[in-house]
UniProtKB/TrEMBL annotation:
Keywords: Membrane, Transmembrane, Transmembrane helix, Transport
Domain of life: Bacteria
Subcellular location: Membrane
Protein name, UniProt field: Purine/pyrimidine permease
Membrane-protein topology: Multi-pass membrane protein
Keyword Transit peptide: no
Primary localisation category: membrane
Pfam families in UniProt: Xan_ur_permease
Membership in a protein family: Belongs to the nucleobase:cation symporter-2 (NCS2) (TC 2.A.40) family.
Length: 470
């Protein structure tokens, strides 16, 4: 009898994982938070490392930019879970951090103008993002489910090469594509797949976390895990205020200003995917505007500390949709780990030990979830000829341009066009979807959207978040 009461109590506590409010038990909270950290950690630090290489940073400067990336990822995630003044932040299940979405444009600006100009353009981009968030209600008609669904689909498809690149050993590694990398990656994938589909309870929900742990153990005999950096790393370090100058270049500011708008469209797509897949509704204008404003504020702060801007992580959207875990303390816990890693170089070095094939094997399964969720949003309005036209042409331009290297970098082509549209499938796809949806005439007798309707601003809490016992 006592055992039955204990089991019932544990089940009631675990149910809090699937609600925004309430504090889950530590035994459930920790693996749920850590799997988000482990799935995104490489994505947080890798853009910082690549920008450091582009700008010719010293080892000390590279360590500093990684440190700031981790701290800012924590701040943005906390804002998204606990909105400042109730307006700066989404209040939705989402994990944000320094993003690959900005990387191609930042590399181009950093290489041409230097890091100080990059920081100035980042500051301007943050202001552009805040303005976009403030006036989002004026332009929201440009982003109906047809557009956001198309962008979400493209986000998922564009993430597939990232996972494969990780499984093959990481771009630029000496043994890229080696058999050992694939053995470790596939074993990790098999563990995650088995736990996600045949496991129960915490093992099922924390499949990625446990898969990464087992993957790291498997990688040890292959010499992929090296703990020397952990021993040599320090215990505590604070970021410096304005370690570099801030310069403003009109061309760089305009380029990144446009990039920020496009990345915000991606953010809208990620928020829509996470909300549709876990809350069974689309985000409201206020939630989307709050998310964009938080991203802009963090970007401004980042420019003063020599860091990089943030956005949502697609792989974590996949985790959210797969597990349906939406409790804000789960994401708050992940933010705490990021913050601790940013302030404690030894912890950061510990997380850096995770081999890239392990990360790839653990995350590849969730990218398909993002793609299918984009399709799910699209079919809610019906796959009419008009919708198929917008979707098909937009994806064709986005994926096609991204797969053909240099397709927008030929003679006479302005460099800013190549920088903005030629480095990511998401940007040309989003622009084309917005344009086509705006110019094509509406169809008659289009099925009304019966599900995934935005929550009415006056209704308060979503019905799916209300305890049925109340």
């Amino acid at each position: 009898m006592a055992a039955q009461v204990q089991t019932r109590a544990e089940q009631e506590l675990d149910e809090s994982l699937f609600k925004r409010e309430g504090l889950p038990p530590v035994g459930s909270l920790v693996p749920m938070s850590l799997q988000h950290v482990l799935a995104s950690f490489a994505g947080v630090i890798t853009p910082a490392m690549m920008i450091a290489t582009t700008c010719g940073f010293t080892q000390e400067q590279e360590t500093a930019i990684i440190q700031v990336a981790l701290i800012l990822s924590a701040i943005d995630t906390l804002l998204q879970q606990f909105p400042l003044f109730g307006r700066i932040g989404a209040g939705l299940p989402i994990l944000t951090g320094v993003s690959f979405a900005f990387l191609p444009a930042f590399q181009a600006v950093g290489a041409q103008f230097g890091f100080s100009v990059l920081l100035g353009a980042e500051l301007v981009g943050g202001i552009v993002a805040i303005l976009f968030g403030i006036f989002y209600n004026k332009v929201r008609k440009l982003f109906p489910p047809l557009v956001t669904g198309t962008v979400i689909f493209t986000i998922g498809v564009s993430l597939y090469p990232t996972a494969i690149r990780y499984m093959a050993g990481g771009a630029g590694s000496a043994n890229f594509g080696g058999i050992n990398n694939w053995i470790v990656g596939l074993i990790t994938f098999a563990v995650v797949f088995a736990l996600a589909n045949f496991g129960k309870g915490v093992l099922k929900l924390g499949s990625i976390f446990f898969g990464i742990i087992i993957g790291c153990i498997v990688a040890i005999p292959f010499g992929m895990v090296d703990g020397s950096e952990v021993l040599s790393a320090g215990w505590f370090s604070l970021p410096q205020f304005m370690p570099y100058g801030i310069e403003f270049n009109p061309a760089a500011c305009i380029t990144l200003g446009v990039v920020y708008v496009m990345v915000n469209v991606q953010l809208i797509g990620d928020l829509s995917a996470a909300s549709a897949g876990s809350l069974d509704r689309m985000p409201t204008e206020r939630e989307i505007g709050g998310a964009i404003k938080a991203q802009g504020l963090v970007s401004i702060i980042s420019s003063f500390f020599g860091g990089l801007p943030t956005s949502a992580f697609g792989q974590n959207v996949g985790i959210i949709v797969s597990t349906k875990v939406i409790n804000k303390w789960v994401f708050g816990g992940a933010a705490f780990v990021f913050l601790a890693a940013g302030l404690c170089p030894k912890l950061s070095a510990l997380l850096l030990m995770i081999p890239q094939p392990v990360i790839g094997g653990a995350t590849i399964s969730v990218f398909g979830t993002i793609t299918l969720n984009g399709i799910r949003i699209l079919v809610k309005d019906g796959l009419t000829p008009r919708a198929c036209t917008v979707f098909g042409i937009s994806v064709a331009f986005g994926i096609g341009i991204a797969q053909v290297s240099g397709s927008l970098a030929g003679p006479g082509m302005p460099e800013w066009i190549s920088t903005i549209f030629g480095t990511s499938a998401i940007t040309p796809c989003a622009v084309m979807a917005i344009i086509l949806n705006s110019v094509l005439p509406p169809e008659d007798n289009t099925p009304e959207q019966r599900n995934l309707k935005p929550l009415d601003e006056t209704e308060g809490v979503s019905p799916c978040l209300i305890d049925e016992d109340e």
